[in-house]
Amino acid sequence: MLATALVLVAALLHAAWNTLIKFSGERLLVVAYMDSVALLFVALALGFVALPPLEIWPWILASAAFELLYRYLLIQAYRVGDLGLVYPLMRGLSPLVVLALTFMFAGETLATQQVIGILLIPFGMLCLLWQGGGGERLPWSMLPVVALIGLCIGCYTFIDGHALRRWSHPLDYLVWVTLFSAWPFPLLALVSKRPAFMRFWREQWRLGLAVGFCVLFSYALVLWAMQLGSIAEAAALREISVILVVLFGMRYLKEPFGLPRLLACGLVLVGMLVMKS
């Protein structure tokens, strides 16, 4: 029950920070500011966390690499697609990736209803390919990008979950992964958009702080939840954020809510209920 509650709160925060990034016209600057907040956090926390064992370092570096690629691709995808289309498509694939990796490498046992519930989520996302999900169609050239984002999410989720099976210190793990994943985008913004980045710090610092808080806190909650329970189930339950993002997109970005998005949200909800039945 605690793991489920943690994942649901994390989903709300994850939906919030993705909405804020899509809402901003300067997505690179928002991500750079978000990572700057994360770097500030880890700088303050480094003196209070343990140094990971040697065998954990490959997991930390691999997770950081997938997260960096995920951020870069996310910026590209949000430039051309609706929040309520891009986000569900990329998030819907990740539980399938985690499930496949779990069966192939982890030997984790899942009940039949858990597997069925997890599979309902990506099937729900297929509804969004029908008539552009009820809004503007995503260019076909972007579908591989969205699929690669889902692959990145699934891979770093699996990596994080199994790293914590080997080293059960979620806060310490969060700090070290963030240390390696949070510096490239601030550096890129300083080099390529220094005046705009400095102006963003002065004029939109509240937005940056809000996104940074949501990212760090949602990540910490998911790590904690995966330590407590099934990695594949935690990854799937987190996709309640799909429903929240579609609603946020409709409310704050004036995106349409057509039948395909309704069906996608419905299948996500049914999948969650089946998993927890």
Task: Describe the structure concisely for a colleague.
The protein is an all-alpha fold and 277 residues long.
N→C terminal distance: 13 Å
Helix content: over 70%
Largest sheet: none
Rg: 18 Å
Low-confidence stretches: none
Number of strands: 0
Provide the residue-averaged pLDDT.
Answer: 83
Relative strand content: under 5%
Strand/helix succession: HHHHHHHHHHHHH
Gross morphology is globular
Number of continuous helical runs: 13
Category from helices, strands and their pairing = mainly alpha
Outline the secondary-structure elements:
Blueprint: H1 2-23, H2 27-45, H3 57-78, H4 83-106, H5 112-126, H6 143-166, H7 170-181, H8 184-192, H9 194-203, H10 205-228, H11 231-237, H12 240-252, H13 259-275
Note down, in words, how this protein is organized.
With about 280 residues, the protein is mainly α. The chain is about 80% helix and about 0% strand. It contains 13 helices and no strands. The protein has helices at about 1-25, 25-45, 55-80, 85-105, 110-125, 145-165, 170-180, 185-190, 195-205, 205-230, 230-235, 240-250, 260-275. α12 packs antiparallel against α13 (about 260-275). The longest helix is centred in the middle third of the chain and has 24 residues, at about 85-105. The protein is globular. The protein starts with a helix and ends with a helix.
